[in-house]
Structures
1.
Amino acid sequence: MFDVYETKVRVTADNDKEAARVRTELKEKNVFLVNLMASPGAGKTTTLVRTIEALKDTYRIGVMEADTDSAVDAETIAKLGVRVIQLHTGGSCHMDADMTERGLAKMGVEDLDLVFLENVGNLVCPAEFDVGAARKVMILSVPEGDDKPLKYPLMFTVSDCLLINKIDTKVIFDFDEEACLQRARALNPNIAFFPLSAKTGEGFDAWIQWLKDAVEQWRKEA
Ligand SMILES: Nc1nc2c(ncn2[C@@H]2O[C@H](COP(=O)(O)OP(=O)(O)O)[C@@H](O)[C@H]2O)c(=O)[nH]1
Ligand SMILES: [Mg+2]
């Protein structure tokens, strides 16, 4: 006789407990954490820049940039004058709740209203690890294709909001927005959906309004 031990279940169950603790602590401090997830190059940093420009007079903002190496994204964000920390994941393809908690402590968030975590570029691993965020936002960019909800269903299932970025390139890539929306909604009927361009700013007003509404709604939650 021997045991079969589902180690992966154990790892994510432990992470879920830690994430719940992070979420409670952030709620007590009134800090709204956004977990921003997407493939490498989908436009996370560019979207963040435009989002911060739109919101930095409304909220005190901080950014945690997570990557396996380099500080290029933190350098970009630092130019906006908001607090930023670069986190290196030591080769890991995602952030987990413990790494997030340590990043938040190192950056200092008590005097902030809104914190963005730019997760490691990946449509698979980050979806599996709850980091304790108030909302999960994902980006799919037009060049990646409208079939991605079929290939990476968990990411679309766990996200509260789907940004379709790079719509300025729709003339080049055959991206069917309606088909993508239907595929995403089949997995997650409540997912918010905003086509936009971080390059031109098209579509940003609706996304910014969604985020403001999400913060206001969350502040009223017990
Ligand atoms: N045409 C176009 N390019 C974009 C857009 N958003 C980002 N990019 C470009 O895509 C590349 C990757 O963007 P980046 O924000 O670094 O992606 P990240 O790796 O997800 O953070 C950069 O060259 C950006 O200038 C967009 O809306 N339209
Ligand atoms: Mg980036």
2.
Amino acid sequence: MHPIAALQSAWSLVVRRVEAVLPTCAELGVGLVPWGPTAHGRFAAAGPADSTELADLAAAVRDVARAHGATPSQVALAWLQQQSGVRGVPVVPIPGTTRVRHLEENAGALDLQLDAAELARLDRLSRPVGTGTVTGS
Ligand SMILES: NC(=O)c1ccc[n+]([C@@H]2O[C@H](COP(=O)([O-])OP(=O)(O)OC[C@H]3O[C@@H](n4cnc5c(N)ncnc54)[C@H](OP(=O)(O)O)[C@@H]3O)[C@@H](O)[C@H]2O)c1
């Protein structure tokens, strides 16, 4: 009935429920504005993970970050940014921070290009976490 320019929704490697509506967004030309895109900085600290699936995902994020000389939060943002090409929708993540250091780090994610194998690895490991099949996380 009325054109929608953009949808703001939680979307990250650990929260992926919005992906159910992405085909409709692609069809209607609706862009995505993901909040919580760094998963609240969750991958930045190498703390104890609350599930095996999350630990595996966090380890993969750190691996990919190391390979690029990047940070885990940058990898989380780059994965999300590159979903634009994968899903056929414009994606403009809005990370939140109280620190200039993190602001600059997060902006740097725009220069990080993950290859298809890296995207696929992160996709596979994040799916059980982000689509809610894991309990207690
Ligand atoms: N529409 C909605 O319902 C909705 C809901 C929630 C939020 N939002 C909006 O979405 C935006 C951001 O959402 P969000 O705050 O959930 O995003 P987020 O970036 O996933 O989470 C922010 C948290 O992550 C930390 N962080 C950010 N960058 C980091 C980095 N590079 N390394 C380590 N930690 C990092 C921040 O800590 P530091 O401060 O220490 O950097 C902060 O605690 C805001 O504009 C907010 O208003 C909208």
